[in-house]
Each structure stands twice: as structure tokens, then as C-alpha cells.
Amino acid sequence: MLGALIIVFREVIEAGLIVGIILAVTKGVRGSHLVIAGGVAAGVVGASLVAAFAGVIAEAVEGFGQEIFNASILLIAVVMLVWHNVWMASHGRELAADVKRVGEAVRTGSKSLVALAVVCAVAVMREGSEIALFMYGWL
Fold first, then answer.
1. Nearest-5° Cα angle at 81, 78 to 84
2. How far is CA 22 from each of CA 25, 116, 118, rounded to the nearest angstrom?
3. How far apart are CA 62 and CA 128, in angstroms?
4. What does pLDDT average to over the chain?
5. What is the pLDDT of residues 25-43, one digit of tens each?
6. For residues 19 and 40, is the Cβ–Cβ distance under 8 A?
7. The dihedral of CA 106, 33, 24, 82: what is its sign?
8. N or C: which end of the chain has fewer CB within 10 A?
């Protein structure tokens, strides 16, 4: 159970970092908080859909296929986590710089506030999907 807590904590921190960077860069931009909140909400909905469809698929393969399905989901989640760790080790600073550039572009008016919502939604959905898949395969 401690392992699950650590995974969930780590994924929430990662999503929070992206959202925090965007909030910091767009401080003072009118309407940015509402758009960012909408992006976070959309990400949560997307991750919930991933979790819901994992449950639907699991019910379809109930019985002998259940163990195979759980093992495959856990394997996919582990591959996603390993790939993410390797990728973030080499591209973490670049990602933070990209997020700052998007925020700065919104601040100057060259990009729409919708770009913020998309960045937040993708970040939250990715991390939430990793949690859902990992936990579903584990349980």
C-alpha cells in the first residue's frame, strides 16, 4: 500500500508542477485562473474516462482473462512510468522552459488562453491516466 501512495503522490506532484509553473508565469493575466481550472477539470475528466474504460474492459474479460488483463495494464503502467522517468531526466528543463514560453506568449497576447487550458488538461490527464492504469493493474 505504501508503494501505491508513493506513486499517486509522485504523479500528483508532477501535474501540480506543470500547473504551478503556468500559474506563476501567467500571474496577472486576466481570466487565466478560470481557464487553467477548466483545463485541470478537463484533464480529470479525461483520466476518469481512462479509468472507467479500464473497468469496462476488465469486466469483459472476467474470469481467466482477468489475470492477463491486470498483468497487461500493470505492465503498460510500468512501461509508461519508466519511459517518463528516462524522458524527464533528459528533457525536464526543456519542458519547463516550453511551459514558460507558452505562458509568456499568453501574457503578451500572441497566444490564446485556450493554450493554457490545453497544456493543463494534457498534463493532468497524462498523470491521472498513469495513476488509474497503475492502480487498476495493481488491485
1. 145
2. 5, 7, 11
3. 24
4. 80
5. 888 888 889 999 999 999 9
6. yes
7. negative
8. N
Q: Where are the alpha helices (DSSP H) in 26-113?
A: 32-60, 64-108
Compute and round to an integer the Cα radius of gyration of the chain: 17
Residue appearing with cell numbers 481557464: 35
User: Helix, strand or coil for residue 29?
Assistant: coil
Round to whole Å and give the CA distance between 123 and 66.
Answer: 30
Q: Are 10 and 111 in contact (CB under 8 A)?
A: no
* C-alpha dist (Å) from residue 10 to 3, 13, 130: 11, 5, 11
Question: What is the C-alpha to C-alpha distance for residues 125 and 41, in angstroms, rounded to an integer?
Answer: 9
The Cα-based distances of 32 to 2, 21, 39 in angstroms read 36, 13, 10
Distance CA(13)–CA(20), nearest Å, equals 10
Could you tell me how far CA 73 lies from the centroid of its own chain? 17
CB-CB neighbours of 9 under 10 Å: 11
CB 36 within 8 A of CB 18: no
Please give the pLDDT value at position 66: 66
